[in-house]
Structures are given as C-alpha cells and as structure tokens.
What does this fold into?
Amino acid sequence: AADAFYPSAYGPWSEYLTGVQGKDPGYDPLSFLLEETHRRKLEFHAWFNPYRITMNHTDLNRLSQDHPARMHPDWVVAYGRQLYYNPGIPEAQEFIVQGIAEVVKNYQVDAVHMDDYFYPYKIAGVEFPDLSTYEQYGKDRFSNIEDWRRDNVNQLVKQINAAVKKERASVKFGISPFGVWRNIADDPTGSNTAAGMTNYDDLYADTREWIRQGYIDYIAPQIYWSIGFAPASYDILVDWWKNEVSQRPVHLY
It folds into this structure.
C-alpha cells in the first residue's frame, strides 16, 4: 500500500506495524527478516505492490503527513474504493523504480518480487480514469489506450529489472501474475481456457512480452485452480506456461 517495512525515502512506515501509518516501530523489520531468513539458509524475495496506495478509501488526507502521494496528488488516481499511482505518469513510474532500487541498494535481498497488481482488477461498468493522461503522454505514440497501458507496465517492468541489476547483478527479479495471459478465443496462441479475466486484456500485464524480452528472471503465475476446472484447468495452464518459458532464460515456478 505504497508504504514500507523499513526506513524509506519513498514511502511512510506501514500502518501494519503499529496501527498508525508513518509511525516508527522502533526497529527495522526488514533487517530482522533478512537476518532470520539467511540464518536458515533461505532466500529473501522482497515483495512489492507497485501502484496501490490505499486498500479501502480514496481520501488523501487520511494518509500520513509525509506520504509521497500527498506531496504529489497529480500522480494519484482513484478507482473504486482505492487510490493508485497513475501508471501512465512518467514521474510516478520513475518514483516507483527508485523506491525498489533503494531496497536493493540498502539491503542484502536475494530477489525483488512483484505481485499480480498492475492496472487494477476491473470494476464492471467503471472505466479506469486515465483518458487525460493518455491524451497527454500516449496518444501521439499509440492509437488506442489499451496498447498504451500495456506499454506503461512493460516499461515499468523493464526499468525495475535494469535498476535492480545496476545496483547488484546477482539479485533476481520475479513476478507472480494472474494465471492466464489470454484465452484461446481472444488469441490462437493463448491458453485453452475461458477465464473471466486475463492479464493482457484486463490488467494490461503482457507477461509474454516480459519473458521474451528477458525483463524477468522468474515467473510464478497464480494458477489457483484444480485439474479439471473447466474455465481454467491447472494442468492445461502449467503446460501453456512451460511452453512460454521454453528455450528462454526465465524460470517457471
């Protein structure tokens, strides 16, 4: 939620530590977690949600006084009952990249990990309010807003990878996207599924592009369905993803 479990120049202390956003818990939880993880010979993958600012309200005034979203309200967009950094604003994108690089620079994390939150999961009948942003930053390069949104996410993923590797080349970068790239009805190279939502068409997360361009070291698709589940069967999707990473230097988890 655009906050931190460590002292950060890019987000306030998380409210999940003390109950109050911006309140110093009196210790560095990330340092403690790293120490305990490495003592057990485990890897530590630092987990980020890049865009989401709030979970259940759209009031900037409820954020801590030092919250970057309050200092840059022009970066912020409301959708449903949540606030997000607008993925189409270059300054917001650079801010997110720098915030992740800060962790790699200051802590001995083994990997950076991004969750499945890109453009938000769609609300029926409600369009994500970024038309003016598209007209300002994307209309001259993209004939439709969907391709521009996908490019915004692609560029973020590309830039995070570059920033991570610049700080420390040994640190891996992985993503755990929603389990379906595209359904076969929408693309003949998509999976033989009928998911009600897909990465490409709804979340503007072109997972195939990241694999093919080498923007990530591993991918862990969220295939939370059983074998035989008609809309999206586990075995069908595992085979599809296995084929996607075949002959490419990207691990499938």
